[in-house]
Amino acid sequence: MKGSVETQKRCEWCNQLFIAQKMTTRYCSHACNSRAYKAQKKKEAKEQYEVERKTQYNMVGINYATMKTTEEASDRYESIKDKEYLSVSETAFLLSVGRATIYRYLHSGLLKAVQTNGKTFIRKTDIDSMFDNTEEYRARPTKDRKPITEFYTVMEIKEKYNVKESWIFNLVKANKIPKTLVRGKSYISKKHIDQYFDKKGYNATKNITEWYSVEDIQEKYALSIAAIYCFVSNNCIPKKRDGRNVLYSKIHFDKAKSREEPKYYTVEEAMRKYKLTRDALYYQVKFHHIAKVKVGKYIKISKPELDKLFETLIVV
């Protein structure tokens, strides 16, 4: 005869320790077992009620909205079905189209109407006659898309346009450029890639041989980076990307700079021209309220106002 194995367990209802005669025993007493059973049944009944209530609510909501729309349409049809003359709105409702469509029918002569005192009336028989002797329906011709036959490999794009491989894939994804995969190798539409770089002015820069880097411009013209970006944007200076660097056309930049009338002195230029110390220059600017601007980290002083001030001082 097999003896029972006593095991210490914790009651799932009252959380008390007890000696269980079987491994499947979950509760310490009959009372705890009954309470747990009733709690489980109560929980299941509540969940079932919530599911039924939500389902009933959704069904009632949908049926009510549909019923209301149907009743409104039915009432409106009942109000116009015996009329001999209809308004534009009533005609649009009868044909299930918009008012603008009815006016297009009237303007094209497809539908007849009478206008009096700013109102338009359409005879119901004219609506019926509109469908007499109609032409056979003709479907709109579809445009046959030409298949793409020319492709670039990723390596060809890198060599031609001097860009990174990761940048190419980001470009293709962002602009939805057609591509295909052949034996694990990506081929990208040549037409779409060339169109993208044409828009970016790549072909316009082919014949330009001399370029400035940002550092070259800063060294030559003493401009801040913000001033450079503003200047090339305002003057539409051609640019190209060389790896991570952006280069600007030397001939276009110099020409634009030569056209630019100098309206401001830098602090160094004003000090050198009028042989002033920095403090003396700042004193004159502040005392005589001479206009100045800040471009990046540089201060520039109005050239006409400063020249006029020192001309007056020299004359006196």
Description of the molecule:
With 316 residues, the protein is α+β, with helices and mostly antiparallel strands. Among the domains are: 83-129, Arc Repressor Mutant, subunit A; 151-200, Arc Repressor Mutant, subunit A (Orthogonal Bundle), CATH 1.10.10; 209-260, Arc Repressor Mutant, subunit A, CATH 1.10.10; 261-316, Arc Repressor Mutant, subunit A (Orthogonal Bundle). Helix content is 52%, strand content 17%. It has 13 helices and 14 strands. The protein has helices spanning 30-80, 88-95, 99-108, 124-129, 154-161, 165-175, 190-199, 214-221, 225-234, 250-259, 267-274, 278-287, 303-315, and strands spanning 7-10, 17-20, 85-86, 114-116, 119-123, 151-153, 179-182, 185-189, 211-212, 239-242, 245-249, 264-266, 292-295, 298-302. The chain has a 3-stranded antiparallel β-sheet with strand order 3-5-4. The protein has a 3-stranded antiparallel β-sheet with strand order 6-8-7. Strands 9-11-10 form a 3-stranded antiparallel β-sheet. A hairpin with a 6-residue loop joins strand 1 (7-10) and strand 2. The chain is extended. The mean pLDDT is 82.
